[in-house]
Design goal:
mainly alpha; 9 helices; 0% strand; globular
């Protein structure tokens, strides 16, 4: 399989996930601005999840630019990632509809943690297939963001049982950490791709 097919499939799945999320925002029956107030938690949960999906889409795009050839293990690892991302609309809707109740933030964090671990697995499989001298291996380096994120997710999951504001703060912090453009792969391409 060529990587363009994997990219197209992944892009399509992410586009559908975002579409499903936005369709969960129901139009109010009233015409006043005050009629939008009950939708605020739903919109805020959508906004956070949209940012997360955008981060995954952007990083996945750069990740696949480092791939020379696709292996069966990469296909399954990519599907594993897409599985967890496909659950984002459900946990987003549940969280927004229930105004960020503790158990909704708990499950939201679990899904985000599992997506992060799935992304890590995909990275590792690509490096195994392309070697430690590959662009991806060089670009990732010590991967501070990748190592700190699961810790922050776990803290967000645990704190959701005690304080939803702290839990939400952890999830926002992780999004902000990844929202800052990560140019490691692009910089390694400028130094000359190895294929």
């Amino acid at each position: 399989m060529k990587k363009t097919r994997l990219e197209a499939f992944s892009d399509g799945v992410l586009a559908i996930i975002i579409t499903i999320m936005v369709l969960e925002i129901k139009v109010p029956h009233g015409t006043e601005l005050s009629d939008l107030k009950p939708l605020l938690p739903i919109f805020l949960s959508y906004l956070l999840s949209f940012i997360y999906l955008g981060i995954y889409w952007n990083n996945h795009h750069h990740l696949l630019h480092t791939v020379k050839n696709i292996s069966g293990s990469m296909l399954w690892a990519n599907l594993h990632l897409l599985f967890w991302l496909s659950l984002v609309p459900f946990v987003t809707g549940w969280m927004g509809e229930n105004h960020f109740a503790p158990h909704t933030l708990f499950l939201y964090g679990v899904v985000l943690l599992m997506a992060a671990l799935a992304y890590f697995i995909l990275q590792k499989i690509i490096i195994q297939n392309h070697g430690n001298d590959s662009i991806l291996a060089k670009a990732i380096g010590n991967d501070f963001k990748g190592k700190i994120s699961p810790v922050l997710y776990i803290l967000g999951i645990i704190s959701s049982l005690f304080n939803v504001w702290i839990s939400g703060g952890f999830y926002i912090l992780i999004a902000l950490i990844w929202l800052v453009p990560d140019n490691r792969i692009e910089n390694n391409f400028k130094n000359g791709p190895d294929f």
